Amino acid sequence: MTLIETDKTGLCFMGDLHGEFKTLGGLMKRTEFANTTYVVCGDCGFGFEKKAYYEQTFNSLSKTAGKYSSDVIFMRGNHDDPSYFDGTAINREHFVAVPDYTVLKTPDHTVLLVGGATSIDRMDRILRRKEMLFKYMKYHDVSESIADEQCPKLYWENEAPVFDTKEMDCIKDLCLSVDIVCTHTCPSFVPPTDKKGLHEWMRVDPALCVDVDKERKAMDMLHERLLSDGHPVNMWFYGHYHWHNFEMVDGIKYIMLDMCRNGLHDIYDVR
After folding, report:
1. How far apart are CA 41 and CA 113, in angstroms?
2. What angle do CA 192, 195, 196 make, to 5 degrees?
3. What is the chain's pLDDT, residue by residue, as a tens digit (271 residues)?
4. Is the dihedral of CA 76, 101, 23, 118 positive or negative?
5. Staple partner for 43: which of 53, 79, 127, 144, CB 3.0–4.6 Å?
6. How would you classify the pairing of strands 267-270 and 10-14?
7. Which ranges of the chain would DSSP assign to H, the alpha helix?
């Protein structure tokens, strides 16, 4: 478990970025929230570009973040390379991509971050990358291993969320009291509660139905463990589904955040 402590009093949650990193500066300028931590609820977009691209991007954004004394925490989504989320691969001033089961402590809140979800279009991504590799091998006359190194990945097999008992034990042992949860997907009892829109994907990917159920079950187990350990959870943020929704269930506010669209972010300011 990773613990991040900050003295910043502002706290904002935002939906999927899908690689629109440069819009973060515009967001900070529009909101003018000072002394704030922004949390991206997954599908940030890490892994589709060379590492140098992210270094250059965050170097240019650091000045804006510094102006407002604000930080951005990135959480893993299914459309992210998990290797970026170890707390070191992306760890610049004001910007960090954190591991699953990171706990963020602010002066007013304790936030648990758990990433991961299932890509419903994974079969399409796998096939498109195979085609990409074939074309690269053909036009550059190289081996498949070289093509694999040069071509960006579109899908990562270890994308699913994991319910980790040991991590939850660690949180309990440290006497941390979680009042906000941020995940990429969500428990099964909040929207979407059906598989509307998945049937065409399941037709070409028979295992998808089972894997989506496993994904939601992992979140159910997380929910059950948090309640059984007595955590005073009152808000639960998630992204992944590309629309906005608010649901109150047994005293917990479940807020689904929409993806970044045309440079505009779906954000929720917690004060």
Report:
1. 8
2. 90
3. 999 999 999 999 999 999 999 999 999 999 889 999 999 999 999 999 988 999 999 999 999 999 999 999 999 999 999 999 999 999 999 999 999 999 999 999 999 999 999 999 999 999 999 999 999 999 999 999 999 999 999 999 999 999 999 999 999 999 999 999 999 999 999 999 999 889 999 999 999 999 999 999 999 999 999 999 999 999 999 999 999 999 999 999 999 999 999 889 999 999 7
4. positive
5. 79
6. antiparallel
7. 23-31, 51-67, 122-140, 144-150, 165-173, 199-204, 208-228
Tell me the domain boundaries of the chain: 2-117+158-194+206-270
Token readout for 102 is: 């990171």
Q: Would you state the structure tokens that stand for residue 44, as one six-digit string?
A: 């940030």
Look up tokens 């005293």; give the residue. Answer: 251
Please measure the distance between the N-terminal and C-terminal CA atoms of the chain and give it in whole angstroms: 26
Answering whether pTM is above 0.90, one says: yes
The CATH number of 2-117+158-194+206-270 is 3.60.21.10
